[in-house]
Amino acid sequence: MNTMNKPRVVVLGAGFGGLELSTLLSETFGDGVDVTLIDKSDAFVFGYSKLDVMFGLTTFDAVRLPYRNFVKSGVRLLRQTVTAIELDRRRVTTNGGTYEADFLIVALGAEYDMDATPGLAEANEFYTLAGAERLRDVLPTFNRGKALIGVCGAPYKCPPAPSECALMLHDYLINRGVRDACEDGARKVAILDDGAEMPFDLFLGVPKHRVPSVVVDSGMAEDGWIPVNPRTLETKYPGIYAVGDGANTGTPKAGVFAEGAARAVASDLIAKLRNSGKATEYNGFGTCYIEFGGGRVGKVEVDFFSGPMPTGTYYEPSVAMRADKENFGSSRRVRWFGM
Ligand SMILES: Cc1cc2nc3c(=O)[nH]c(=O)nc-3n(C[C@H](O)[C@H](O)[C@H](O)COP(=O)(O)OP(=O)(O)OC[C@H]3O[C@@H](n4cnc5c(N)ncnc54)[C@H](O)[C@@H]3O)c2cc1C
User: Using omega within 30 degrees of 0 as the cis cutoff, is the peptide bond preceding 155 cis?
Assistant: First the structure.
């Protein structure tokens, strides 16, 4: 522990995982623990908001939750870019300084490897906010021909999102009265890894994902992702955990699972810092909402760990379910940002 006797927890990435972990530590310890949360961005955005931006249902400004509103006792949030992680010393370097940790949590998510798919940079993708914004202007010009939703690599965030995109596009084209014309034509072609060709006029891409390069450079990734104990989220480096999209837990890359993993890490840190109690392990359970178009939302509850195989319960889409999804977002907005 450090000389001031305040344990130092450094959390890299203020996404679903980092925000929830920092919030739980603040709720438990207040300023009794020194939590440093580092993110290169100035705002958090729910992944699903990108679909809403793309289809013109909301705006870029409306979906940004500025980090200046994340105010928690004991937590300082720094807008800096992590440039190096030294695993043996639990030391992090950013463009603004150097931070040493008693406990280090890597919650940097996944980034997109645009170069892995030749042509993708010139086509459209909807997994970044900038890409979703560009598509908001492209979609009104798509009046005939074929649209192709292309997943350029697995694993990728939010497994239902490409299907949600297809269902919302169907609905969008019906509303514009051009759905029937959007079947034939096709002036361009996508080539699959088995050599098959798929013609299209409008490409809606999901880029290949990878861990951020700073994680690769640290040496903690194996086979592309960070190996962890899936129940405790501990890496093989003492005092270092990984949660969320970057960690290889066996659960999907989705905010709800990042949050569940963060809860398990918080529980472990609380037990360790109090030197009492038993941590609650990550249960691999998550609820996902799925857009079906026409304002309808479906839901799946998936349990990855409690049986020999993952199990799930599916709830048929309905307009009424939208309130559940909105509550999912607004409850986090209030909890993390007080807004
Ligand atoms: C179209 C779409 C729809 C989705 N829908 C849903 C949904 O309905 N439900 C759901 O649960 N999930 C959904 N997701 C997935 C969800 O957004 C992610 O799985 C979730 O955000 C992962 O949380 P995380 O904490 O691992 O990483 P993130 O939330 O991605 O946070 C990582 C943070 O690290 C920061 N960072 C990265 N590198 C650096 C660096 N070098 N220095 C400093 N900071 C850095 C980033 O700025 C980012 O804020 C969707 C995603 C997309 C793209």
Answer: yes
**What is residue 184's predicted lDDT score, i.e. its pLDDT?**
82
Q: Are residues 12 and 80 in the same domain?
A: yes
Going by alpha carbons, the residue nearest to atom 27 of ligand 1 is 109
Report pLDDT digits (tens) over 299-316: 999 999 999 999 999 999
Among candidate residues 236, 265, 283, the one where a domain is terminated: 283
User: Of 74, 88, 95, which Cα lies nearest the Cα of 11?
Assistant: 74
CATH (domain of 269) = 3.50.50.60
Q: Region 45-67: what's the mean pLDDT? A: 97
What is the distance between the alpha carbons of residues 56 and 237, in angstroms, rounded to a whole number? 45
Question: Which amino acid, 30?
Answer: G
8 φ, ψ to 5°? -105, 120
Q: What is the DSSP letter of 157?
A: B
Same domain, 230 and 89: yes
Q: Are residue 179 and residue 150 in the same domain, yes or no?
A: yes
Cα distance between residue 167 and residue 79, in whole Å: 37
Residue 337 lies in a domain: no
Residues constituting the chain: 339
The answer on pLDDT for 186 being more than 90 is no
Q: Give the pairing of strands 91-94 and 188-191.
A: unpaired
How many domains are there within the chain?
A: 2
Q: Which of 122, 110, 124 is nearest to 244 (CA)?
A: 110
Indicate if 17 and 98 belong to the same structural domain.
Answer: yes
CA 312 to the chain's CA centroid: 21
Is the per-residue pLDDT at 322 higher than 60? yes
Six-digit token string for 81? 């870019």
pLDDT digits (tens, 9 = 90+) for 141-150: 999 999 999 9
Asked if 95 and 19 sit in the same domain, the reply is yes
Residue 37 domain boundaries = 8-110+211-283
CB-defined site of ligand 1, < 6 Å: 13-18, 38-41, 47-48, 50-51, 81-82, 107-109, 127, 157-158, 161, 212, 214, 244-245, 253-256, 258, 288-289
CB atoms within 10 A of CB 97: 11
